[in-house]
Amino acid sequence: MRNKKIIRRRALRSINALFKRADEVFKEKPELADRYAQLARRISMRCRVRIPRKWKRRYCKKCQKFLKPGVNARIRLRNKRIIITCLECGNKVRIPYKN
């Protein structure tokens, strides 16, 4: 039981580090940022850890690219929803919100 907690905590730390690194590297090497996002997703699936909400919205679930708002992602607020559009593949994610 304790071992699982340690593994999950390390996995979460790794996921956060990979997404932060992807955010830093995106401007120079977007392919490397995409790879970091894929690795973070693989770690989360293997260790059964949720990707934090902050990062979950910065990753396209269809084409598996790291999303940078204004560069390869469009964010709109419409009808009590946040609509995140991936400009690489056209996938849309709709997230409800309250006023």
Overview in brief:
With 99 residues, this protein is α+β, with helices and mostly antiparallel strands.
CATH superfamily: Immunoglobulin FC, subunit C
Instruction: Catalogue the unreliable spans.
Output: none
What is the CATH architecture term?
Answer: Up-down Bundle
Number of strands: 3
Which range best describes the helical content: under 10%, 10-25%, 25-40%, 40-55%, 55-70% or over 70%? 40-55%
Note the quaternary state here: single chain
The number of domains is 1
Would you kindly provide a written description of the structure presented here, covering whatever features stand out?
This protein is an alpha+beta fold and 99 residues long. It has a single domain, classed as Single alpha-helices involved in coiled-coils or other helix-helix interfaces, CATH 1.20.5. 46% of the residues lie in helices and 17% in strands. The protein has helices at residues 2-25, 30-47, 53-56; strands at 73-78, 81-86, 92-96. Strands 1-2-3 form a 3-stranded antiparallel sheet, with no helix packed on it. Helix 1 runs antiparallel to helix 2. The model has no long low-confidence stretch (mean pLDDT 93).
Overview features:
17% strand, 3 helices, 99 residues, 3 strands, alpha+beta, Single alpha-helices involved in coiled-coils or other helix-helix interfaces, three-stranded antiparallel sheet
List the helices and strands and how they pair.
Layout (H helix, E strand, L loop, with lengths): L1 H24 L4 H18 L5 H4 L16 E6 L2 E6 L5 E5 L3
Antiparallel strand pairs: 1-2, 2-3
Helix pairs in contact: 1-2
